[in-house]
């Protein structure tokens, strides 16, 4: 888990650097009139934002998994009951009984 946290932090830092580099390219392209450089800067900004959002989502998902594992460890019988009820409901939903008349 610690390695995942370090990877997430590295991804966030990399995203911030890419975003900052995009701002610089965008400004330089605007000053020089180079539309290609300006577009490249805007793309880098967008990619940096997307990368940071993905890192945040990954972190949230990891937190949810940790909570679920803790719940199952603390209350195994309740977890088994919940899974059983959900399984029965899904079975009734996807495999309804047919009338045999």
UniProtKB/TrEMBL annotation:
The reply on keyword Transmembrane is yes
Q: What organism is recorded for this protein?
A: Acetobacter syzygii
Family named by the database record = Belongs to the UPF0337 (CsbD) family.
What keywords is this UniProt entry annotated with? Membrane, Transmembrane, Transmembrane helix
Domain CsbD-like, chain residue ranges per copy: 11-62
* Membrane-crossing residue ranges in chain numbering: 77-95
Stated name of the protein = General stress protein
């Amino acid at each position: 888990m610690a390695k995942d946290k370090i990877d997430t932090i590295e991804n966030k830092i990399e995203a911030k650097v890419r975003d900052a580099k995009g701002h610089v390219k965008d400004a330089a392209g605007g000053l020089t009139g180079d539309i290609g450089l300006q577009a490249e800067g805007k793309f880098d900004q967008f990619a940096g934002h997307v990368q940071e959002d993905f890192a945040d989502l990954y972190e949230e998902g990891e937190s949810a998994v940790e909570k679920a594992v803790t719940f199952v460890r603390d209350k195994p019988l309740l977890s088994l009951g919940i899974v059983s009820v959900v399984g029965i409901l899904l079975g009734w939903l996807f495999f309804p009984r047919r009338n045999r008349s």
